[in-house]
Amino acid sequence: MNTQLIEARAGRITPQMEAVARDENRSPEFVRDEIARGHAVIPFNPAHKNVKAVIVGTSYKTKVNANIGRSPVRSCDDEEVAKVNVALEAGADFLMDLSVGEDLDVVRQAILEACPVPVGTVPIYEALSRVGGDAKKLTEELLLEVVRDQAEQGVDFMTLHAGLKREHVPLAVKRLLGICSRGGAILAEWMQTFERENPYLTRWDEFMAICRKHDVTVSLGDGLRPGCLADASDAAQFAELGVLGELVTRCRDAGVQVMVEGPGHMPFDQIQMNMEFQQKICDNAPFYVLGPLVTDIAPGYDHITSAIGATAAAYHGASLLCYVTPAEHLCLPTSDDVRQGLIAYRIAAHAADVAKGLPKAREHDDAMATARINFDWKKQFELALDGETARKRYEDAKSTEEGEDDHCSMCGREFCAVRTTKRLAEEQAKL
User: Fold this and answer.
1) Residue range 289-315: average pLDDT?
2) What number of helices (H) and strands (E) belong to the chain?
3) How far are the Cα atoms of 83, 183, 311, 396 from residue 64, in angstroms, in the given order?
4) How many percent of the chain have pLDDT more than 70?
5) Is residue 238 classed exposed, middle or buried when 0-12, 13-18 and 19+ CB atoms within 10 A define those classes?
6) What is the arithmetic mean of pLDDT over 315-322?
7) Do 279 and 396 lie in a common domain?
8) What is the CATH number of the domain that holds 109?
9) Residue 97 · residue 114 · CB < 8 Å
10) What is the pLDDT averaged over residues 148-160?
């Protein structure tokens, strides 16, 4: 089986390319050429039977990923599958299963069957789970086995923390917050314990063969992403980024689709530089970012602090936003946390798309303005990113009789600027 990248480089247009072209208001030829250059990816493992083709790249709508997955101390398989449905209802374009613990193939199979959008994983989590959480028992062969098993099961994209080298570990441990990536920390401990290089790098060609066989898109993980503002844009982060740039070329040479993961926590004024630097180093491979969170002091509200950074990141070049929920840094997200995180990130993604002037990006906004001037509440709720919440707020505070819906409770009828504007327009039309 050929990957989307191999097909595109051969000049062929796949059914998946045709599907995303319709969704994105682009020509199939444009999509094919972008994939051939590696500037866009379509994570699409044929073994994931009900998956929809979704494209990631700067020329397309900014996509949003939702992370779910059980922890060693909280949640169960049924709860995580329920979160899949919440995420889909809230508009997730991608979903990652970050589960740890026993029998991960069971929960992953349930998620794959329930999820029609691309599903991703972090294989090092399952590898560590299979050895009871003891990093000293990890082997290169086990990691290869896990990647193979997940690919055969239908996982569409995988985070491989291959850019973190043994020589980077001393740089990272000097930081204020050290290594905040779970995958990065696991591999750093393994490399330091055995005085060996990253197993993803030493067995790279074998990992590529698995991904090529199943058309698994590689998401090059940022194991040294900054976990606080003080660590942003430091030597450790950029040392890893340099390796990721090299690996982008190696993925493409192997016929494997690839995107690159990015920070993290970062002062707002550093976001543009980081996005542009990544695109330069990684030859415009799609950039997949977590936030960035623009302040460290708002636990419980990090879906907001990160959405601020996510809008800037998407405007300056990020293609896929990994949501952050109100539970970030505090606990395993609930279903309501998942919903809140997704709504915040869909707002961030759409705001960036409007600012970038993507085809038809502003149509919804203009339709909403029309509905507002016409006091068409039903249409407003239909157009809203979270129409049910908007409707409930309106109805709970409504103080008018049935049929008197030409104002809301904030201004009332007499002080409503929209009503006044409509009167002005009517008077102007008579002149």
Assistant:
1) 98
2) 19, 10
3) 15, 21, 12, 31
4) 98
5) middle
6) 98
7) no
8) 3.20.20.540
9) no
10) 98
